[in-house]
Amino acid sequence: MITLYQFPRAWSIPNPGQFCVKLETYLRMVGIEYRIAETLPLYAPLGKLPFIEDNGYKLADSRMIIRYLQQHYGDSLDAHLSAEQNALALAWQRLLEEHLYWVCMYSRWQYGAENWQINKQAIFQGLPQPMADMVAAIYRLRIRGQMRGHGIGRLAAADIFELGKHDVVALSAALDGKTFLLGNRPSSIDASAFGVLINLLACPVSSPVKDYALTQSSLVDYCRRIQTRYFPELGEPKFGE
Fold it and tell me: Which strands, in side-by-side order, build the sheet including 57-60?
């Protein structure tokens, strides 16, 4: 059986890690059996979560893991998509994982002392003190450097959130009147979208882009629909807290 290594659960959502949510949602969507092992990035092959172990083989990065799962376990989840829909899925993935994700990371890791404490408690809850504070500080500096390397970390907070709002507007319009991002049937892009959006809407970290996203009923309903369908044991997500 596959072992999924990820952060401990928090906030009544599947995981405080966007890509951990993505991968676990994908596993549930395609019906692959797995077990969870809680860990931290410092123990991961590439220094980030999630990663999996399958018959002694360890693999990190959600994109590479999903490709591996498709090759070794089969995947009919995207079989109904047209070439145009596959192209749209790739474009949405880039917006979600390469842009809106970093807006959310800025909110958690850099935007205000209260947000940072909430984030630190969820991510590093398994470590004893004072080790937790030391490791958290190291990772905070590392992620700050990653945000600057990406480019978004060089902008003023107001500009970062304005760009994030543009992403939210696009996603809200795309989901208006649809059950899933590409229509009325789920596809793998929904695992990615849910991972980012549930961590924006139902994470107890405040930001202007979250406040705006909560006004978009199509996004709220989408996250509620996916969580109750694929993670019924967690109940409905708690929005706006």
Answer: 34-38, 2-6, 51-54, 57-60
Length in residues, the chain? 241
Instruction: Summarize pLDDT for 60-115 with one digit per residue, the tens.
Output: 999 999 999 999 998 779 999 999 999 999 999 999 999 999 999 999 999 999 99
d(CA 215, CA 201): 10
132-137-140 Cα angle (round to 5): 120
Sorted by sequence, the CB contacts under 8 Å of residue 121 that are 6+ apart come out as none
**Closest among 146, 134, 215 to 239, alpha carbons compared:** 215
Spatial contact of 14 and 237, defined as CB atoms under 8 Å apart:
no
pTM: 0.96
End-to-end, the C-alpha distance of the chain in Å comes to 36
Token digits of residue 6: 């990820």
Q: How far apart are CA 9 and CA 183, in angstroms?
A: 29
Q: Give the integer Cα–Cα distance in Å for 240 and 211.
A: 8
| Angstrom distances, CA of residue 171 to CA of 79, 96, 196 | 23, 9, 11
CB 66 within 8 A of CB 23: yes
CA distance linking residue 67 with residue 71, whole number of Å: 6
